[in-house]
């Protein structure tokens, strides 16, 4: 029976959330089995690898993760000897993160696995569809961010 109005399978926010959750579940399973990392730990590790000296606040902003989740992941990575944390020189409350030598070595092992997972998923799309998807996601991000900032798109 077809109803007018909201249909979840055609509701873009729901579809994006569902797909992101499905991909996160796949990645979590692989990273837990191979590297004993949670998704939150992986996200923090990857952001620190890409931007040494990044703050926990910046990671939260970039990932849309709750600050408590970022903090717990950073503490866990620190306890595992994978992350170094230091107070910021400008804001003593802010923690600046860097990978330890062990964290760098682990990231160097994880990165190829991440790219392999991505390639397996992306194989369902052509190269031009991948480019279009990235473009569409960037436009969706910009529209959502503008609405969060109170602007209409």
UniProtKB/TrEMBL annotation:
InterPro entries for this protein: HTH_MarR-typ (IPR000835), MarR/SlyA-like (IPR039422), WH-like_DNA-bd_sf (IPR036388), WH_DNA-bd_sf (IPR036390)
Q: Which SMART domains match?
A: HTH_MARR
HTH marR-type domain mapped to chain residues: 1-142
Question: At the top level of its lineage, which domain of life is listed?
Answer: Bacteria
What the entry lists under Pfam families is as follows: MarR_2 (PF12802)
In alphabetical order, the GO MF annotations are: DNA-binding transcription factor activity
Please give the biological process terms from Gene Ontology that the record holds. response to stress
Name the chain's protein.
Answer: MarR family transcriptional regulator
Record organism: Sphingobium amiense
């Amino acid at each position: 029976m077809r109803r007018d109005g909201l249909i979840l399978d055609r509701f873009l926010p729901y579809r994006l959330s569902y797909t992101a959750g499905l991909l996160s579940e796949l990645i979590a399973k692989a990273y837990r089995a191979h590297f004993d990392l949670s998704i939150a730990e992986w996200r923090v590790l990857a952001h620190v690898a890409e931007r040494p000296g990044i703050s926990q606040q910046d990671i939260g902003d970039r990932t849309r993760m709750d600050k408590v989740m970022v903090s717990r992941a950073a503490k866990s990575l620190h306890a595992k000897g994978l992350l170094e944390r230091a107070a910021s020189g400008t804001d003593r409350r802010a923690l600046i993160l860097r990978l330890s030598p062990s964290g760098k070595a682990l990231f160097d092992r994880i990165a190829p696995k991440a790219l392999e997972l991505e390639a397996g998923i992306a194989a369902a799309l052509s190269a031009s569809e991948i480019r279009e998807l990235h473009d569409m996601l960037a436009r969706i991000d910009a529209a959502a961010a503008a609405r969060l900032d109170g602007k209409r798109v």
